[in-house]
């Protein structure tokens, strides 16, 4: 006879004693001590909504703090890598530069503030990079272009020489357009398209206050003018974005460059 049966027959057990037996080690096989097995009148204790909200709030707070700490730690590292990449790209877009001997100076050039040399004490961002040889002679300029592409903004860096009034080189800083068609790697491997930017005419008018011809993107193989760009097959939107970004920059910057050319030449001799 089991312990429970003995207690029932004796009539000496109480509700608590039965509960203790049921809750003890003598549980029939195949059954569990779940909340549904508890005797009537006994309710399992559940966490309150306030405590759950508090826990979730603490988790969210610490997650936010962690994100901020990671960002604060990595932001300067990323910025420095971008600066070094841009510095290297500046030399790439000016042909025949002896990287070991050449140097560059960044300027902020605007119609409102004029020409300001950018250094560690300057808060203005550079939008013009002048490249000089070992004798401090001016070799050319590098400027950024940006325009909406198929997926996102397409950013480029292009070289400009005053003597020919032309674009002499270009590299893609950022393009996430269709892989295999308009992404950075594909564009820069397209020799035919990149050739557009070796002697692209951006001459100013006689008064030197505007570019004579806007850069025009045409269907591949139909280029007839020096200010035209042959589009890439299958990536017309990316081609137009690159050309438009450069056109926007030269239209705004070249008149200012010519106006401040004497000061820019002297900057390397300070």
From TrEMBL:
GO CC entries: plasma membrane
Transmembrane segments: 50-71
InterPro entries membership: FMN-bd, Ion_transpt_RnfG/RsxG
The keyword Membrane belongs to this UniProt entry's keyword annotation: yes
Alphabetized GO MF terms: electron transfer activity; FMN binding
A Pfam entry, by short name: FMN_bind
Sequence ranges assigned to domain FMN-binding in this UniProt record: 149-253
GO terms classed as biological process: electron transport chain
Signal peptide: none
Keywords noted in UniProt: Electron transport, Flavoprotein, FMN, Membrane, Phosphoprotein, Transmembrane, Transmembrane helix, Transport
SMART domains the UniProt entry points to: FMN_bind
Protein name, UniProt field: Electron transport complex protein RnfG
């Amino acid at each position: 006879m089991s312990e429970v049966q003995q207690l029932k027959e004796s009539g000496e057990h109480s509700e608590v004693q039965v509960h203790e037996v049921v809750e003890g080690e003598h549980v029939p096989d195949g059954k569990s001590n779940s909340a549904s097995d508890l005797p009537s009148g006994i309710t399992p204790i559940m966490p309150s909504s306030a405590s759950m909200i508090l826990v979730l709030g603490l988790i969210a707070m610490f997650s936010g703090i962690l994100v901020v700490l990671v960002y604060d730690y990595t932001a300067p590292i990323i910025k420095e890598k971008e600066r070094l990449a841009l510095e290297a790209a500046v030399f790439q877009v000016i042909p025949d530069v002896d990287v070991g001997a050449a140097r560059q100076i960044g300027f902020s050039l605007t119609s409102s503030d004029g020409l300001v040399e950018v250094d560690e004490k300057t808060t203005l961002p550079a939008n013009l990079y002048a490249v000089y040889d070992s004798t401090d002679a001016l070799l050319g300029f590098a400027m950024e272009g940006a325009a909406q592409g198929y997926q996102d903004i397409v950013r480029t860096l292009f070289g400009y020489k005053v003597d020919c009034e032309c674009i002499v080189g270009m590299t893609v800083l950022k393009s996430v357009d269709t892989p295999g068609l308009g992404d950075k790697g594909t564009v820069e491997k397209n020799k035919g398209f990149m050739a557009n930017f070796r002697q692209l005419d951006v001459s100013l008018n006689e008064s030197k206050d505007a570019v004579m011809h806007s850069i025009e993107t045409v269907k591949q193989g139909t280029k007839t003018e020096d200010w035209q760009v042959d589009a890439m097959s299958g990536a017309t939107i990316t081609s137009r974005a690159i050309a438009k970004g450069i056109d926007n920059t030269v239209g705004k910057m070249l008149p200012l460059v010519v106006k401040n050319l004497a000061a820019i030449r002297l900057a390397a001799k300070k």
